[in-house]
Amino acid sequence: MTAALAPAAALDAADWQARRRAHEERVDAWLAPHLARRRAGVKHPVEDFLFTYYSHRPAQLRRWHPGAGVVLRDADPAEFGADYRATAAGLTLDTDRVRGRRSESVAWIRTLLAATAGRPAHFGCFGMHEWAMVYRQTQDEVRHNAWPLRLSPAATAAVVEERGVRCSHFDAFRFFTAPARPLNLLTPTRESQHALEQTGCLHANMDLYKWAYKLSPLVPSELVAECFALAREIRTLDMRASPYDLADLGYPPVRVETPEGRAEYAAAQRGFAERAATLRARLLAALDRSAPLGGTA
Fold it and tell me: Which pLDDT band, with edges at 50, 70 and 90, does 161 fall under?
């Protein structure tokens, strides 16, 4: 017997179709330039990141889901797939089916989101993780070697050594060069991720997009898109504060090697942390709505 869920919200066809159309139009504005570059074989070190580093395909990002606890009146089941079931009131997500298939990953993500939300933010890293990824490498060796470094390799290394590295995020740390890893204050691992992620980290906040799409279709697609939008802005700051010179692409540097640049970075980081806190809370609330009454998300 299917466990009871919180009362469903019902949407008339005109309402849910308008929501779907608005979502698709918003996402298309992001997808069109990326797909055009992909067809032309042109790479972009900032704009393509969310489509290459993360596993969510463009068509998946564009596809609309209402989230758990929503009934779509006059909806064709064939449009939404096997995770939806027809009821007398309309079509709705079969949360038991989805959560049963993904119980382990949903629990892991929820624990991470809640643990991160309960941890104070730190704003003293100043983006040195990107510098640690090119530490002691030549121009030919760096990842985005089509784009020059703002400083010489020696000067870049000197900044890292002077500032130190305070990265708590495993998926950034794992891209550090071998000589940069001992310079980090921490040694993040996948196993310590729940204990280390904190709300000031750019990459932890960018990863809200990853957790949102991994929770889809339990969370509404509009929320996935909000997380994508934040991640896109964070990626821009990440690369503006990096050692790469991307001015020719329209990205003036945030010179974190200077006191003024560090102040600019920290101010932007605080703003992103505030926005991410809201999105993190919304993801947790969406998970709670998808859980059976009296159960746990």
Answer: very high
Tokens 């703002």 sit at which residue? 150
Residue with tokens 């064939």: 78
pLDDT tens-digit series, residues 221-262: 999 999 999 999 999 999 999 999 999 999 999 999 999 999
Residues 64, 58: Cα–Cα separation, whole Å? 12
pTM of this prediction?
Answer: 0.94
State the CB neighbour count (10 A cutoff) for residue 115. 15
Task: At 282, list the tokens.
Answer: 């919304």
